[in-house]
């Protein structure tokens, strides 16, 4: 988080003056959500397979979409829970604390999903992101100070890369994707995360998942993507803002 904060502050050069109290509240809450999401996710990955941890974390944005679901899409969260049951029952979750941390990361991811658009609108995109990541780094500073003496030279490169790729670049891409497309599209694309997690775990970490776990991941992805897509598609379109009334033409 600290590495990402330094990079984003240099790139975005955010202005701290002129932000409303509501904007600052969003920045702080967003930073806390990011800090919690990162810590809880890494704690989950340390205990359960990567693909399973990402699947649990994906339940966060899925829950946000399910809360706004209408009609027949309200039944889809039940299908998603069945997929999670397959993941757990197929040997994907072998550590109770891994499950707790994974679900905690999902709660933080839900907060991240809700706050991302609001912070972007109120602070101007990457400026708000840079401030929020800085807040997250400050929140985690007591843990950073305690862990600093145990760092070795071999830890520096992975630490820097995880800050650049896992926080600064990833969160910046989320912001830009929402602004270029829509929350519906980006939310649905989050469903790709469990697949990528499982593939990376299999190729780079040698974590081969049982067929039941893979089936559960597919069920979670499919039902989650459909829930997010239908939930946001059913939202009423915003009413157009009336423009200024043109002045009457002078008499000829």
From TrEMBL:
GO terms for cellular component: membrane. The keyword Transmembrane helix applies. Pfam families: EamA. Residues 97-227 form the EamA domain. Residues 232-252 are annotated as: Disordered. Keywords: Membrane, Transmembrane, Transmembrane helix. Residues 237-252 have a biased composition (Pro residues). The keyword Signal does not apply. The chain crosses the membrane at residues 28-50, 71-90, 96-116, 128-147, 159-178, 209-229. Belongs to the EamA transporter family. This is EamA family transporter. It comes from Cellulomonas triticagri.
